[in-house]
Each structure stands twice: as structure tokens, then as C-alpha cells.
Write a structure and sequence with these properties.
- The chain is α/β, with parallel strands linked by helices.
- The radius of gyration is 20 Å and the shape is globular.
- The protein is built from 13 helices and 12 strands.
- The chain has a domain of 238 residues: Rossmann fold.
- A 7-stranded parallel sheet has the order 3-2-1-4-5-6-10, with helices on both faces.
- The protein starts with a strand and ends with a helix.
């Protein structure tokens, strides 16, 4: 038996594969386009492991996906593949439309045709698990209740709009064709192997390099933070016993103001790798022009997955942040390899004060 995972060389996908193989022997066929954020170095520990079969490819390549499904006859497809950075979607939305909407549509078509050809017993057991984001729900006021699975979709960026569209396609393929789907909407992930364009790895990288730590606007945006390892275990749980056709919100139960997140990172770095001048890294904080249409608050109500599937995050915000900072400090060669000239140009373009 096998599983097809798309986007398995990216941040969350790679962590999922590594977590999977710690407890499972089932083969994974990992399909990744290897765009800037897809990095096979994330999976270096799996080199030579026959359980991991990597295929460089695009979920929008119908011929490729049809062939892979027929060749490997997986019992499930888990779709991590997506363009995911809001800033990039603002400055270049077309890639997000192509990957997140058109790519998901073509993947669904290939999966539907494959599923139609399975035996009755295998059709019942098959699952298509689509990984999405809490950003599809829009923005909350500070006193609003957290997002539940019944929350109306109100995406506010090209990124979140493209993910909302992909969610709707997945839902439609279940209701129209009977495809056995599962959808997850997670809060902000953090942890090992995250590309340093996202807040936490960016702050760590800039702090160690003596550069400004960019904070959008007043820094009072609120996010719910989910350690990536907890997210991966939630996905495994949903794949195992999730109810077909259902959506599950996955949250860390750790709402924090962005500025406080940066302060926490600075305190951790002050302890683990102090500045040579004895000053705090907090002196490097620099407020920059806010992102256009920046959502003020996200918050996940994860009651459903707890009640139905018995999942809760194992990490607190504090324990997850400590693990994350230590990982980046211990893996500076990885950081240096991904922070290429192209990456530096991107940061200069989008995070100038």
C-alpha cells in the first residue's frame, strides 16, 4: 500500500513525511514541483530510504498525476502543494491562481478518474485529504469568537481567495461525484524547515545577521500559532478516522500578538545565543509599512477535532518556540543554503522600512 503526498518537499509537507516515517512503513510517493520553497535538503535524512519515492512534478500536470496514480495505486492522496505566502500573492497573484485553483482542479480530476476505476472495496477505503488555511475565513475583531468549521468564507488576499476556491472545488467533488474527501484548515504553522520569508524564521535569521527585525504596521495583528509537528499528527489522525466530507480546523490554542512573538524570539535568542555587545536583540526591531489589506486577527476553534477525533496540540507556544529557535541555531548550514541572493532580493523588496 502507498500514499501520494503532493508538496512534500515544502515546510509542512517535509515535516509530515519525516513524522510519518518515524512510526509508519507505508510507502509515500512525494510529488513536488520544487519551486523556491520546495527543498529536497529538508528530506536529506530519507536519502536511500525505499519508503520515500520522490517525483519532481506539478499537480497541474494531468498526464503525470494520472500516470502516477495508475502506477502506484495509492489508498490516499494528501495535498499540501500550494503557493502560500500572502506577500507574494499581493505582488504576483497569477501563480497562486494557477497552482492553488487550476492545479487543485486538475489534481482532483486525475484523482476522480483514478477513484472511479477502483474496486468497490477500495473506493470505500480511499481518501483525498486537502490541506488548507484559516485565512479563508477572513479577519476577526478582537472580541469575536474563534473560527469554527461553519464560519462563512471571507478571504481578503489573493492567497486566501485562491485557497478558498480550492476548498470549494474539493467540497464540490465530494457532493457532485462522491469523492471521499477530507479538508483541514490550520492556523499559522512554525517549526523546522520553514522558509525564511515567514515571520518566525525571518526574525531568527535577521537577528543573527545583525539586520532589522521587520514588524508590519503596529505589530498588533493576532495569530493562532501551531507547531508543525502537532499539525502533522493531526493530519495523520484525520486520515485515519476523519469522517468523509468533513472539514476540521486545526489550531494551536496559542493566540499571540505579532509583536509579542518577536519579543519572545528575542528573549530566546538572548538566552541561547547572546549578542556580542551584550544588548538584547529587541533593539533590532523595526516597524515597517503595513501589508495591504492586512487581516487583524485569526483564531481557531479546534473543539471539533478534539471532540470527534481526540486530537489536541502537544506543544505549548513556549515549548514549541524553544524547539524552533534551537533547531535554527543548530542548523545554520540549512539556513545559509536557502538564503540565496534571490531570497535576499525578495526580503529587500518587501520588508524595507
Amino acid at each position: 500500500m502507498s500514499i501520494v503526498v503532493t508538496g512534500g518537499a515544502g515546510f509542512i509537507g517535509a515535516n509530515f513525511l519525516l513524522d510519518w516515517f518515524r512510526s509508519q512503513d507505508e510507502t509515500i510517493i512525494n510529488v513536488d514541483k520544487l519551486t523556491y520553497a520546495g527543498n529536497l535538503e529538508n528530506l536529506a535524512s530519507l536519502q536511500g530510504d525505499a519508503r520515500h519515492q520522490f517525483v519532481r512534478g506539478d499537480i497541474g500536470d494531468s498526464t503525470l498525476m494520472t500516470r502516477l496514480l495508475a502506477q502506484h495505486t495509492p489508498r490516499a492522496v494528501i495535498n499540501f502543494a500550494a503557493e502560500s505566502h500572502v506577500d507574494r500573492s499581493i505582488h504576483g497573484p497569477e501563480e497562486f491562481i494557477q497552482t492553488n485553483i487550476v492545479g487543485t482542479f486538475r489534481l482532483l480530476e486525475a484523482v476522480r478518474q483514478y477513484w472511479d476505476g477502483l474496486s468497490a472495496a477500495d473506493r470505500v477505503l480511499f481518501r483525498f485529504l486537502h490541506v488548507s488555511t484559516d485565512e479563508v475565513y477572513g479577519s476577526l475583531e478582537l472580541d469575536d469568537p474563534a473560527f469554527t468549521e461553519d464560519r462563512r468564507y471571507e478571504p481578503n488576499s489573493p492567497y486566501s481567495a485562491s485557497k478558498a476556491a480550492s476548498d470549494h472545488l474539493v467540497r464540490a467533488y465530494h457532493h457532485t461525484y462522491g469523492l471521499p474527501v477530507l479538508t483541514t484548515n490550520c492556523s499559522n504553522n512554525y517549526g523546522p524547515f520553514q522558509f525564511p520569508e515567514k515571520l518566525i524564521p525571518l526574525v531568527i535569521h535577521n537577528a543573527l545577521a545583525g539586520k532589522p527585525l521587520p514588524v508590519y504596521g503596529d505589530g498588533q495583528q493576532v495569530r493562532d500559532w501551531l507547531y508543525v509537528g502537532d499539525h502533522c499528527r493531526a493530519i495523520q489522525r484525520i486520515l485515519e478516522i476523519g469522517r468523509v466530507g468533513e472539514t476540521y480546523n486545526i489550531g494551536g490554542g496559542s493566540q499571540r500578538v505579532n509583536l509579542n512573538v518577536v519579543h519572545t524570539l528575542c528573549r530566546e535568542l538572548d538566552e541561547f545565543q547572546p549578542r556580542s555587545d551584550g544588548k538584547s536583540y529587541q533593539e533590532q526591531i523595526a516597524f515597517v509599512k503595513d501589508r495591504p489589506g492586512h487581516d487583524r486577527r485569526y483564531a481557531i476553534d479546534a473543539t471539533k477535532i478534539d471532540r470527534q477525533l481526540g486530537w489536541k496540540p502537544a506543544e505549548t507556544f513556549e515549548s514549541g518556540m524553544q524547539k524552533t529557535v534551537r533547531w535554527y541555531l543548530d542548523n545554520q548550514p540549512w539556513v545559509q543554503n536557502v538564503t540565496s541572493g534571490t531570497y535576499r532580493s525578495w526580503v529587500e523588496k518587501h520588508y524595507c522600512a
